Amino acid sequence: MKGFSKQKSLVLSLCLLLLVLTACGSSNTSSEPGDQQNQGNSAPVAENKSLILATTTSTENSGLLDYILPVFKEETGIDTKVVAVGTGKALQMGMDGEADVLLVHAKADEEKFVQEGHGIERFDVMYNDFILVGPKDDPAGIKTNAPQDIIKAFELIEEKQENFVSRGDDSGTHKMELNLWAEGNMEPQGDWYLSAGKGMGDVIMMADELNGYTLADRATYLSIKDKVDLVIVTEGEGRLFNQYGVIAVNPEKNDQINQAAAQVFVDWILSAETQQLISKFGMEEYKQSLFIPNAQ
Amino acid sequence: MSEIWMGLKGALTLLTSLNREVYDIILLSLYVSLTSTLIAALGAIPSGIWLGLKDFPGKKIIIRILYTFMSLPPVVVGLVVFLFISRKGPLGFLEINFTPTAMILAQICILFPIITGIVFNGTKERGEQVKLLGKTLGANRWQVLILLIHELRVNIFTAIITGYGRAVSEVGAVMIVGGNIKGHTRVMTTTIAMLQSMGQYDLAIAIGIVLLLLAFIINSILYHFQQGDS
């Protein structure tokens, strides 16, 4: 029996140790750039000052949100909980009243969302562009034959049956890709067309592993460019334009929707200062803006 | 609540519709988890029995490590296996990344310690007795082993079923090394995770119910066997 109590005390002390460790961990303030470590001077944040933002995997994977949200918190005291999913799911969360505000990229669907009364109003925030990336040796020969023609590039991939990894997750990028196949009157089918049902970062990694091509947003690609052997094979044409919009969810859905904070967020992301901040994102690391702000 | 109700209806429609894609997903789930359970069991059962009977220096440490490995997070196993079989990894030449083979490999790594641990526990308790009995009856080594397996059959069966239950319900590792590719490496658990991320809750619940049904059937079998023994 003595051994048992010894064990018990060991387990207990382990639990205590864990508790202490987690407490230490959570009290550490993150040292993001632009996040001043001023402990003790932050005003007590009100109970309902947290905001749920449903957005696309690209805004999170690229690091944009980590770059701008600390500034939002500092200016308004509002804590933003980011749920990064595909555009389809983000809109679904809005419909279900599980998010307060959306930052997504599928204009037609967004307008429908507002028309059906799920959201208050849609605003343009910024845009970036899609690119086709593929293996360095470019087995489909796209870089030479279709450097600025995405439909032709898709035709080449289908013709040569080179691996193509699709997001397959009902995201904005996936919708864009399906539209492009449709525009070229093609129905991608066969062992070369791999539908992954995963986020942008995962899919780029998979394309790299499988020596295949994939349609990606420039921001996410640039953020993991160093980890993969993929290069840009097609870019810079009108069809690949990618507009992001912000929508505050209709507060009549349920009484838990934080409309006040959502409105603050919308006003803040459309403000001149934030738009300026967005245009600076990526300059240091990639010598180019990853998102070009275009709020009216 | 309505989603769950819709899911129930959806599950029935799914199972009765004979939709090829759905059945492919279910069959692949069964194929991957059964194969990995079988291969892991073939190695783990003798290992567990051996560990239960033999004494050697450092055994305590080995057992502690084994118990730790019994609760390895599948995601970690998936990550390690992925790094080994990725193109840049030491096993990259096999080109098995994002194939069912890779999924089986990862699941073997998860199941091996679990089955070994459970068999070891059973052997520890009754192995010595059985061994002595066999020896007094004049059995040789192989006959002793067969006798052991026969005597410990309920424990071994429990180990296999537990392992299988873990395999069929596991999502972290198969998602990483399989990649959830439609028609190639998509199994029930990765489908559920994907559908949830797409906001298609009814279909996700439906496949979840199919998964639960399978688990129920397997547990019923286990219960039946255990009852039969006592």
UniProtKB/TrEMBL annotation, chain A:
Gene3D superfamilies: Periplasmic binding protein-like II. It comes from the Bacteria. InterPro entries: ABC-Tungstate_binding (IPR052738), PBP_domain (IPR024370). Residues 1-25 form the signal peptide. Residues 46-273 form the PBP domain. Keywords: Signal. Transmembrane segments: none annotated. This is Substrate-binding domain-containing protein. The lineage of its organism: Bacteria, Bacillati, Bacillota, Clostridia, Eubacteriales.
